[in-house]
Amino acid sequence: MRRSADAYLDIETTGLSQFFDYITVIGVLRCDGRSNELIQLVGEEVTRGNLITALRDVKTIYTYNGARFDLRFISNSLGIDLAAEYYHRDLMYDCWRCNLYGGFKAVERQLGIPRRLVGIGGYEAVQLWWSYLKGGNKSALALLLEYNREDVVNLKALRERLNSF
Length: 165
What we know:
By secondary structure, this protein is of the alpha/beta class. The protein has a single domain, classed as 2-Layer Sandwich (Nucleotidyltransferase, domain 5), CATH 3.30.420. The chain is 45% helix and 21% strand. α6 (122-135) packs antiparallel against α7 (138-163). The radius of gyration is 15 Å and the shape is globular. The relative contact order is 0.18. The mean pLDDT is 95.
C-alpha cells in the first residue's frame, strides 16, 4: 500500500484524564493533494477500526500538542499507537521554533487564522457533549462538531502558515 495523504487530527474528550475520561469525537481532515475529506467519528463510532479506516492511505498525521495529548489519549483508549504506525508531526513544536507560544487558539490569533466559533474551547466542548448526551440536544452536538471541524481545518491553515516562516 502506498501512503501519500496527509491527515490533520484533533480529538474532543469528556476531560483531561486518559484513564477516567473518554473520547467523544475524533476529527480527521484527509488531504491527498486532489481533495480534502472531513471525517468525524462521534460517540460509539470512536473505535480503533473506524479510526484506521479514516486514516487509509495516510502517511503523515499533523496535530497541535498531539504528542502529549491526542495521540496518548488515543493509544490509551483505543490501543493504537499512531506515532508508531504513521509519521507524526506535532505543529506545536514547529510553532515554538518560530517563537509562537500558547494554546492552539492563541497561535491562531497571532497568525491571523480566522475562527468563526470564538469563545469556545475545551471546557465548552465537554459541556456541549454532555448537553447532547444527557439532554438529547442535537444543536449542542452540531456546535461541537463545527468546533472540531474548525480545529482540523485550522491545523491545515497553521501548517501552511508555518511553511512560509
